[in-house]
Amino acid sequence: MKTALWLYLFLFLAYFDLHAQHPVLTPFALSLRAAPAFIGWMMGIYALTHLPGNLLAGSLIDRHGSRRYIIFSLTAAGIILLFQAHVQLPWQLLLLRSISGFVLAFLSPACLALLASLSVNPVTQGKYMSGHGVVHTLASVLSPAAGAIIVAQSGYSGTFVGLGWLLIFTGVIAFLTVPRPARLPTKARLPQKVTAKAEPLPQESFPFSLRLYMVPFTIACCQGMLFFEISLRSGGHASILSTGILFSAVSLGALVTLSMLFLNQYSPGKRVAVAMFILALCFYALAAAHTLPLIGILLVLGMAKGLLFPALSSLFIERSGGAALGRVFSYQSIAMSIGSFAGPVAAGQLRGHTSPYFIAFLLLMAALIGLLTGKQNSAKVMPSGIQL
Q1: pLDDT tens-digit profile of 76-88?
Q2: Where does the chain cross the membrane (predicted)?
Q3: C-alpha distances in Å from residue 46, one per residue of 125, 159, 285
Q4: What is the pTM of this model?
C-alpha cells in the first residue's frame, strides 16, 4: 500500500503537469500562425510517436520492471518542455511534440503494470486501477484551469518552463520512492485457477484482444475529436480560461464515478458496455442537441469515462491472468495512441463537412455493436466471470 501511495503522489504531479497543457497548446500554435489542419496534426503526432515507444515498452517493462522507465519518461518530458518554451515556428512545436510523444509512451504501461503487480486479488487490482483513475482525474480537474491562469500570469514560455521543471522534479521523486523490481517468477504472481491458461498469452488471448482493443482505440479517437473541437470553439478565439473550465468539467464528472469504489464489484465487461453507450449518447447530444448546456453534457461524458477506464483495465488484467502485464498494457497504449492520432487529424480535415461529434457517435456505436455481437465467441475463449 505504501508503494501505491507514493506512486499516486508523483502520478498526480505528472498528470497535473501534462493536462495543464491541454488548453494552452492550441492557442500557442495559433499564436505561431498555425492553420487548424496543422493543429490537428500537431495534436495527432504526439499520439503517433507513442507507437514505437509502446512497442518497446511492453517487453522492456516485463524484463526490467517499471521503475527505470517511469523515471526516464518524466525526466525526458520535462527537458523537452524546457526546449518548447523557446519555440518560434510551428514546425519546431511539431518536432518537440513528436519527441515528447515517444518518451511519454513508457509512462502509462509502466505505471499500470506496477500497480497491477501489487496484488493478485481481482477486486483489489480493480481498486488500484480506480485509484489510478482518481489521481489522474483529480489532476485533470485542477490542471486545465490552472494552466490557463499560469499562462495569463507568465505567458506561454513561462508556463512551459514551469511545467518542465515540475516534470523533472517529479522524475526525481520517482527515483527516490519507486521500489526496484522484485524479480518474481511469473507463476508466483498468478491466481492458482488461471495459471495454466494464462501462460500462452500471445496465442490464446490474441483473437479476443483484437476485438477488445477496439474499445481503447475508439475512445481515444473520440476523445481526440472532443479536445480538438473544444479548443477551437468560436474559431479558436474562445478564452483559454473558459476552455480550461470545460476540460475540468469532463474530469470532474469522471471523478464522481471513480470515487464509487463499489462499482468494482460488478462485471468489468458490463461496465465497459454501459459506459460506451452513455459516451455515444453524449457525443450525439454535442452534435445535435444544441439547446442543452455544454458543461452539463461534458459532466455526464466525464462520468462515463470514469466508469469505463478502470473497468477496461480490470478486464485486461483478468483476461491475461496477471501475466506479461507490461505487454498487455503496452498493447492498450498502442490502440489508444493510434486513436489519439486519428481523432484530431480526422476532425481537422472533416469539420468543414460534418460535425466531428457525430462521427464520434457513429464510431462509438459501431464499436459497441461489435463488442456485443461478439459475446458468444468471447464466452468461448474467456475465463468464467469475464464475459461481456
Answers
A1: 988 998 998 888 8
A2: 30-48, 69-87, 99-121, 133-152, 158-178, 210-228, 240-263, 272-289, 295-317, 329-350, 356-374
A3: 29, 19, 28
A4: 0.63
